[in-house]
Inverse folding.
């Protein structure tokens, strides 16, 4: 997926919703996703101190410092790439965290082999990742 396509997805799916109820519902779902998928390594506060890190080869990132790391701007496209697994190292190297885009698509599509279901799963996954990005953005440390 190109950077332009990712940005377009972010704009269409995550940044344009003016319906407060829908936004609240997505934030509740995003917090649940964070608690289930991210907190075991990054901790419920996002500081990289979840219950799993002692057994990991590399300490999980402190998600509260993303904006600071990028000069005061929260890098939505970069965070999307990381969560979705679009930032794989060249040469088929390994990455430190699961490819949540694949996990979310698999959860959504189940055992279906229909193209329509796969396309819907992809759209649902993009929305889910965008909501998770919005949640992670709320964890950013004050400047």
């Amino acid at each position: 997926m190109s950077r332009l396509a990712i940005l377009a997805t972010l704009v269409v799916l995550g940044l344009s919703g003016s319906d407060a109820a829908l936004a609240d519902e997505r934030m509740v779902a995003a917090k649940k996703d964070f608690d289930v998928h991210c907190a075991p390594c990054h901790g419920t506060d996002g500081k990289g101190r979840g219950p799993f890190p002692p057994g990991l080869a590399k300490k999980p990132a402190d998600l509260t410092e993303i904006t600071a790391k990028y000069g005061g701007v929260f890098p939505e496209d970069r965070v999307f790439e990381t969560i979705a697994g679009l930032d794989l190292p060249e040469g088929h190297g390994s990455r430190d965290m699961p490819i949540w885009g694949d996990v979310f698509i698999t959860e959504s599509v189940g055992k279906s082999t229909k193209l329509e279901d796969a396309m819907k799963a992809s759209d649902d996954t993009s929305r889910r990742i965008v909501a998770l990005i919005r949640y992670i953005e709320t964890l950013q440390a004050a400047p």
In short: The mean pLDDT is 83. The chain has one domain: 3-138. Residues 3-138 form a domain with the Cytochrome Bc1 Complex; Chain D, domain 2 fold (CATH 1.10.760).
